[in-house]
Queue: 2 jobs
Job 1
Amino acid sequence: MSEKLYPVSIEVNGKARSAQVPARLSLVDFLREELRLTGTHVGCEHGICGACSVMLDGEPVRSCLMFAVQADGHHLTTVEGLAQADGSLSILQDSFCEAHGLQCGYCTPGMLIASQALLNETPNPSEAQIRDAIGGNLCRCTGYRQIVDAVQLAASRLAAEKK
Amino acid sequence: MADAKSPYGFRYIGAKRRTKEHPRFVTGRGRYVADIALPGMKHVAIIASPHASARIVSIDSAAALAAPGVHYVLTGAEFCAATDALAIGVDTPRVTRYALANGVVRYAGEWVAAVVADTRALAEDAAELIEVEYATTPHVVDPEIAVLADSPQVHPAHGSNVLFHRRFVWGAVDEAFANAQNTVKLRVRWGRSSTVPIETFGVAAQWDAGREILDVWASIQMPKFPDQLARALRLPGNAVRVHYDVDVGGSYGVKRGIKHTALVSYLARKLGMPVRFLEDRLENMRGGDMHGPDRLFDMQAAFDNDGTIRALKIRALDDVGAYAGRSPLQLGKPVSAICGPYRIKAVEYEPTSVMTNKTPQEAVRGFGQSPTNFAIERTIDHIARHLDMDRIELRQKNLLKKEEFPYLIPSGSTYDSGDYHTVLDKAMKAIDYPALVAQRDAARKAGKLAGIGISTCLEPSGGNSAFEPLFNPKNDTTTWMDSCLVRVDLSGAITGVMGTSSSGQGHETLVSTVIGEVLERDPASIRVVRADSLNALPSNSPVGSRMAIMLGGAAAGAARKIKATLLAIAAHNLGCDAAALDYKDGNISLRADPAKKMSWDELIAVAHRKYHLMPPGFEPGLQTQFVWEVPTGGVLPTPEGVAQIYPCYSFETHIVYAEIDPATAKPSLQRYVCGHDCGVMINPDIVHGMTYGGIAHGIGAALYEKFSYTEDGQLESGTFMDYLLPSAMEIPSVDIVDHCTPSPLTTFGQKGSGEAGYLGAPAAIANAINDALAPLNASLETLPMSQEALFRVISASGAAGSGHR
Amino acid sequence: MKSAAFEYVRASSLAEVCAALHDSADETKLIAGGQSLVPMMAMRLTRPARLIDINEIDALKLITVDHNFVRTGACTRQCVIARDAALGAALPLLKQALEWVGHVQTRNRGTVGGSLVHADPAAEMPLVAQILGAQMVLRSHAGTRTVGAAEFFEGPLATATRPDECLEEIHWPVWAEQRTGSAFTEISRRHGDFALVAAAAQIAVDENGVCTRVSFGLAGGGYIPMAFPQLAARLVGGTLDDEAVQSVVNDAASEFDPGGDLHASPEYRRHLAVVLAARMLRAAYDDARKAS
């Protein structure tokens, strides 16, 4: 391969990761193919479906619309980084299980990223706010209803935990 | 969310239960085909035709072959000579299909060549260097022209563009129309859309030269996939091993990538390297061959002044695109419910499947039932309007009553059970129908366009696919089966084995719940694994809402045999008849003297280790298999076209309230209730989930989604910017109310439900929008009902307004 | 859908960008948020040989709010602008417009400058720039020049930015009038999609509810987002009576002259233009009357 390689150092889920990558390697492909973090999924590669959503410096972005080289020096959280330190499910992940907020699982990592970002900023979101927060994540299995239920359940459980 | 306790009196069946599939998906540990990295794997990119119809004059691959990282360029000339044509569901041997164009291209997007390279990016680079010279030929995109004798022909060797045409007459139809007190006539159009899963189709294949086995991992949902693949590749069936333990990211019918798989498998075998092809979204939309029905209906109804419907005439013209697999059969499945949930004694059905130079169709959720339900329900509303009769009242009059089941419909299927009036009542109560009418009327007074839509529809389930021999008598297939193997190991742990893939339906949960119910052991302790196609028992795949019935039934059957064996072991060791024993939680005791007992662990030990204590005639170990035929299966259709198709009939009713801003023509769905009866729900959360999802698909088909073609046969909506999948902002909050009319044909009374919601939503939404337009004397009979289309009909009626409000 | 290969340069200063562009602007593109550029690269509709990444230049991310102007750096993220309270108070129209831009993920990465330079006919930022008469500050090796919105937008996806220039800042005029109101809306197919038609207005009134200043515009339908200063002037001195508004919006829709596509015909867009422009004028007016 004669393509020029660029060094990148990215903190992914709290771990420093380094590699040499072609400039055109998308961030999602880097995560999946280079780091073997296959939890982030590819659905459209043109920025609509949201399956590739990850947190860049704490905010959800579409990783298919970034090149890996652009993430050099930044912090990423993927679905693999949402669990608790001891490996058990986060309250949000567990709420998705309880409310059956997923079926085939393909959009789920993106939904979790978008929902977690919402709860980080708005701990008690209304249904309208939840739908808006996941408005950039398409799902073809659930019709969104049980996903909304899951986020509402997580919010109430997080609030109860605080007390 | 479902209740903690089963509403049906079972221990596990019907109670709320988290799925076994959840944990891996919420942690990003699913195993989809794109996650599988085979060592040394190469990647494929496709060169597709830009023309709707052309002869391929030449293909120059020299520059591509010289490009970095390229291993091979495959064209149709080689591939079509080395493999056999893919199967087609009707008797049209001269309509042949291969993964790559065979000298001619028949639709824009058809695959012409495949490049194999070290990475997908390099394959795409090389694909751009391939030069194809085409000589364009006349094309046809309008199905009403394509049926004519002088139309350009998509497959000239076939002699016409018509793949299938038949006029079925069940009952005294002409007499009913001749004597009718009233008739209506209407034309409705179901636009070309599809289920478009978020994961595209992907396949990886590897040829093991030492063992002469082709290993295949694919995002697949397809009956007879290994068999059709083997046949295409001219391999014996036992040289193909499809791995069913690949997670599939949604399918709802369409993941039938037999052409993708034949292509990749051929390359893997030829090159001696593992090869993977993941459709990108452009390839998927235009050349993945996964479009859905594209259907024009001409409907007529004959009915009395009091609303009794005497007969229906249904003419359906479906545009399958340039090639066909099973797609023409999507006109056949609706025969199983051709009169809907109504007491209509005479039906004429004239389906025509026609080819045009467009992307081919594939099986879509419901296999043609949703378009048919839409056409029937629009007809019902037209009848109501003609008689100035309330639409609910008209339905109540014609809906089959609970006492009439089992009910034999004119086309030959028997509806097993139902209580349609109760479900409709429940839904009306849930939405507070009188208040809804008042709300609509108040909105109208305030100058809005507002409408209520109702649909009452059937979901045929169980997958007795007798429409196959119905549409192709040469295909005398009547076996529609599924299986389960259950084993209890030496430690007493239970494992169930299923032999097909899943795409979100929760089959592992289904199987473990059923086995747990029968053996009275906690489903959480029961593991479910998938066989591969070499060691799997027969399965016809998750299609036709069949798995709760068929896989559930098979799991129950196998578990019952395990239970019988345990009782036999206990009877033999306790010195009594099995009938004198009580089985509880896997432990067995003598009813008359419970101190005499054998625990689960003791029974297992006998089965596995203590042959000297085994009853005579029993095999060592503890494993059983259960393979069974679909209830009502095994009978060929009559020459007159009367056939028993699916066994179990679920019912759904949708009530929708919609408003349209008359100034902007933008519709808004504001209230939505679905009444649903699929018999016993083994896992209510799973059933509800698929219903919510089906409704969302239905909203997409009704209002947003269309594969739109230009006159030149170019797909205009080939990206997600133009093919509009609804987000959470477009789908309203939906309430489901359940009812349970068990099926007499199944193990627990369950009926199928994978297609629920989708089968009735477009009909109800179309009825709501038309109710909203009714005061303008306007109507819209084409799906999707886009804003542009709504603007045109509202403008034409003169009510568009200046929008001061 | 993998992009064609390119050389990547991560610029750490605007000077570095301008030097690189001066050296060779051939087949070079600047990448900011990438929300419009990268899909085009993935589909190989555009294949720059070199990509200069301006996301790491802090100087391009400033926000300053003063009496007369709000200055936003070209690379300021849309989400940052949306959250800035002082900016929102000074430029409510910009904040309102941002609610219609894409989705959360789009706004977390997309930049206001990127949207302006990309100049999609249906985009929200260019429409606001036209209505407020924003000034674009363009920097090159040769120096700086300022171009007003009316001259900046030249055609669909085309601006006055020269190949060797980089947008540095946008100056947004702040209305001094006390009683000012604004409104933004669009009709799209789905939430977050490009507008079929977008309309927005900003109005100032005196203590009697008489319009003292009016600005409004339309976007969507193919050409460029437009403001209508002469038509708006006809509403000054009045209280937005039906006849006056109708006449103004009809003329605006004619001048706007939208085209058609797969999703909406020219006739439907023209109709929407009339309806939405009237609604936004009224909404801005009502908003102004409430403000004191």
Note: The CA atoms of residues 99 and 150 of chain A lie 5 Å apart.
Job 2
Amino acid sequence: MQAKDAKLYEMALVNLLRQRDETAFTQLIEQYHASLVRLASIYVQDITTAEEIAQETWLAVLQGLDQFEGRSSLKTWIFTILTNKSKTRSQREKRIVSYADLEGATEIQPTMDSKRFRDPLAEDWPNHWAPSSAPVSWMGIPEDIFLSQETLDLVRQTIDELSDSQRLVITLHDQDEISTQEICNILGISETNQRVLLHRARAKVRQALENYFQVEH
Amino acid sequence: MDDEMTCKELVELVTEYLEGTLAEDLRAKMEDHLSRCDGCTHYLEQMQQTIRLTGRVREESLTSQQRDDLLRLFRDWQKN
């Protein structure tokens, strides 16, 4: 969807909600509730509390509709309310929060096994792909295998196993399609941190897929 | 020659490249490299495919319990 269309769509939804339209609400919760719970659970690490926070967020959204001016997107507004509530709750519970590594994500570590590259001191092509280590094209993989349930399960599982902060960023960015700028606002992190986390997360999913497609096909 | 981007460097810049935040000179070097390197071209394609697959793995839909709870919340608000 184009940004302008998305904006019109959101404002239409907001207007329906102001008229207390249940279908509009159903549409929003179908779209975002699972993501909200997931986001909250990173702060409080207890699914019941996360669910509670997401519910409180929806109530705050409904009660705050008249104050929503459309300066940020509806999506960002909802996610920001949730993050604020999650932070308040995790502070109240004096929990040591696992999002600490959100801020410490700038250390530079390679995402690719260095064995796949030629020696940095090699005379020919240092730091280029070593023989038979270069990535191969996936274009020849039939679509029904590429998009099979098994492939998608692998992606899901790999994402589940990422660190909290990497999982958070890849799901917000590549699944919920929230922009980098919005993610930075929601999470209160720098664009550099966001990008490092996103890159690490994607690199791990790519690696899992590469291993899988190499064995299978 | 020494100024050329290596494969090892390129793989770490792919996200910035795809996000459109890579500095102009690095982008030029990267595209120059890509035009001559199948391995890196495939790497870039694989990352794009990875993003596409990730987008397909959406959260499962709501449980009926969640939906009931939220609709109750909505209807309470609706009455006020």
Note: Chain B touches chain A at residues 6-9, 11-12, 14-16, 19, 21, 37-40, 42-43, 45-47, 49-51, 53-62, 66-67, 69-71, 73-75, 77-78 (CB under 8 Å).
